[in-house]
Design a protein that fits this description.
Elements: H1 3-17, H2 20-23, H3 27-37, H4 67-79, E1 81-88, E2 94-108, E3 111-117, E4 125-128, E5 132-141, H5 149-155, E6 166-174, E7 191-194, E8 199-207, H6 210-217, E9 223-227, H7 229-246
Antiparallel strand pairs: 1-2, 1-5, 2-3, 3-4, 6-8, 6-9, 7-8
Helix pairs in contact: 1-3
């Protein structure tokens, strides 16, 4: 496969994974690839019609990041400088002006999020780039603060703070469930056994995060969580609430 064909496939993928402000940086390469493939004499001119990139479900459009915000935040992070930011808040008027000490940048499902300190003695907080009205790099050096983004991400926002960072997940899942651990393992220590004719049993050590809850929730009644008991209780309460809401089929 030639480089322009690979670029076309990469463009399709990146437009679903990255915010517009990032894909715009690569626009020249994408234009060159489309130009080469579009030449009538090239026998692979129909290549773009042969590929399509889709997610596993419904994904709302990615929010737009002001190009100057993207560049200034990246420059502050690169040079270890303080960044002065004007924040906007959803469904409200103008937000506050803050001086942020950038520590790292996270990309989650196409959303760019700056992890930063806000003043002396503060702990790391998250600031979405699409909620920044403007940004400007200052001459001031950012405050030193050791952070490991991998550990930060794995420890943030647990579904139950009383539990350890890693929990033992035990669940039953139907073999036709879209979240199939036979194809996409949950962990290196995962154990799968047959439970009955329709379901298998899974045991795995997984992170204690709300991402886990959202991931499992996507399979609905095709899975049954047995452990940890706190997670089972959460799904049981949600199922009861849903039954109360939809139990009466009349509008």
């Amino acid at each position: 496969m030639c480089s322009c064909a690979r670029s076309t496939f990469l463009e399709r993928f990146l437009r679903t994974a990255l915010p517009p402000s990032l894909t715009e940086v690569l626009e020249r390469q994408f234009d060159d690839a489309r130009s080469q493939i579009g030449k009538a004499e090239w026998r692979h001119a129909k290549w773009p019609k042969k590929i399509r990139v889709e997610g596993l479900g419904f994904h709302p459009a990615l929010p737009k990041v002001t190009p100057s915000v993207y560049h200034e935040v990246y420059r502050a992070l690169w040079d270890d400088k303080v960044c002065h930011v004007m924040l906007r808040r959803p469904r409200e008027g103008d937000g506050a002006e803050v001086d942020l000490h950038p520590l790292g940048l996270l990309l989650r499902d196409g959303l760019l999020t700056l992890v930063a300190l806000e003043g002396a003695g503060s702990e790391p907080r998250e600031f979405h780039l699409h909620r920044m009205r403007s940004a400007k790099v200052l001459e001031q050096d950012r405050r030193a603060f050791p952070i490991d983004l991998a550990k930060y991400e794995s420890s943030r926002d647990p579904f139950d703070p009383s539990l350890p960072r890693k929990v033992r997940l035990v669940m039953l899942f139907q073999r036709d469930a879209p979240l199939n651990p036979t194809e996409r393992p949950f962990s290196d220590d995962q154990r799968l056994t047959k439970h009955d004719e329709q379901r298998d049993r899974l045991e795995a050590t997984v992170p204690n995060t709300r991402y886990l809850v959202a991931w499992l929730r996507g399979s609905g009644p095709r899975i049954e969580v047995l452990e940890p008991k706190e997670l089972r209780a959460l799904f049981a309460s949600e199922a009861a609430a849903a039954n109360a809401m939809y139990g009466d089929s009349s509008p």
